[in-house]
Write a structure and sequence with these properties.
single chain, about 70% helix
Length: about 300
């Protein structure tokens, strides 16, 4: 007996549309993916091959010279630990403050909710500027401390709005009323009910804040003076600058070419070293990340 087919028959127009759509998406994927493959291949290739432009897809004359030059620096392990500490501790503070602000704003019973939302939204349009911010950090005795990197950006208004929209869409008032009848306080309700139901948006916020802390460069360069506190991005920048060529100082052509080749390898190796940790983290929260962004951005 022949089994009845449940497949939907596509018209010629649908087939043409699907083909064009897949072709365009494949092209976009190649455009996005190729630079990443090139950087990875160049970081493992011989410096002469990189400078000659012979690296296209796969490593040419594979070598670990670039990574050896990076990890040979004794400041790298310390900077890794500093950045991990800053990322973990800073993200925990970011998540706590964002949820504590976003959840009350999602409740219709909060007095002055509109005024508070307008006030925090105002901060997205205007800022004090670099010099006043630096003077403020100095005045608060936060200079050369990690607090200078955490507190000024402890709450992102954009993330608060996304989280508030998520709470409004997924935590119904009926659930709060039922919990209240059972004697549940506001704090207990948020801790035992709201947070367990908010794993998708918390994953989104974690990714946003963690990437921001991990890539923190400019503020770290301005507010940190002690080299023992430097983050990974600052140390990698210093390594790259130290290996740049000064044509007035370099008189040996062979040495100049070797130094230039090493600088090229370092450039690609540093990109890989700085990017890999976040690339490893993303797959673990990707499922919640997509769901949280869609729900938090489209409803409300």
């Amino acid at each position: 007996m022949k089994k009845n087919s449940t497949a939907i028959r596509l018209s010629s127009g649908d087939r043409i549309f699907n083909f064009i759509n897949m072709a365009l998406l494949s092209l976009v994927m190649l455009i996005v993916l190729y630079p990443l493959i090139y950087i990875l291949s160049a970081s493992f290739s011989n410096s002469n091959a990189v400078m000659a432009g012979r690296v296209w897809l796969f490593p040419v004359e594979p070598t670990l010279a670039g990574y050896e030059a990076v990890f040979k620096n004794p400041k790298i392990p310390r900077s890794f630990l500093n950045t991990i500490y800053l990322t973990v501790f800073g993200t925990m503070i970011n998540i706590a403050l964002t949820v504590m602000l976003a959840y009350p704003l999602s409740r219709k019973t909060l007095f002055g909710r509109g005024a508070i939302t307008g006030f925090i939204t105002f901060t997205m349009l205007f800022s004090g500027g670099l010099v006043p911010s630096f003077l403020l950090i100095k005045g608060l005795n936060l200079y050369n401390t990690y607090w200078a990197l955490i507190l000024p950006g402890a709450v992102s208004v954009y993330n608060v709005i996304v989280a508030r929209t998520f709470f409004q869409s997924n935590i119904p008032d009926d659930l709060y009323e039922a919990a209240s009848l059972d004697g549940c306080s506001d704090l207990y309700f948020m801790w035992k009910i709201v947070l367990p139901l908010s794993a998708p948006i918390i994953a989104v916020l974690t990714m946003f804040y963690a990437v921001g802390h991990w890539n923190s460069y400019f503020n770290a360069m301005i507010y940190l003076q002690d080299s023992k506190k430097f983050t990974l991005q600052v140390v990698l920048r210093n390594i790259l600058i130290a290996n740049q060529i000064d044509n007035d100082m370099m008189k040996d052509v062979d040495a100049m070419q070797k130094q230039e080749g090493l600088a090229q390898l370092l450039k690609y190796s540093l990109i890989v070293v700085a990017s890999v940790p976040m690339l490893i983290l993303y797959p673990f929260i990707q499922k919640h990340f997509v769901k949280g962004v869609m729900i938090g951005a489209l409803k409300g």
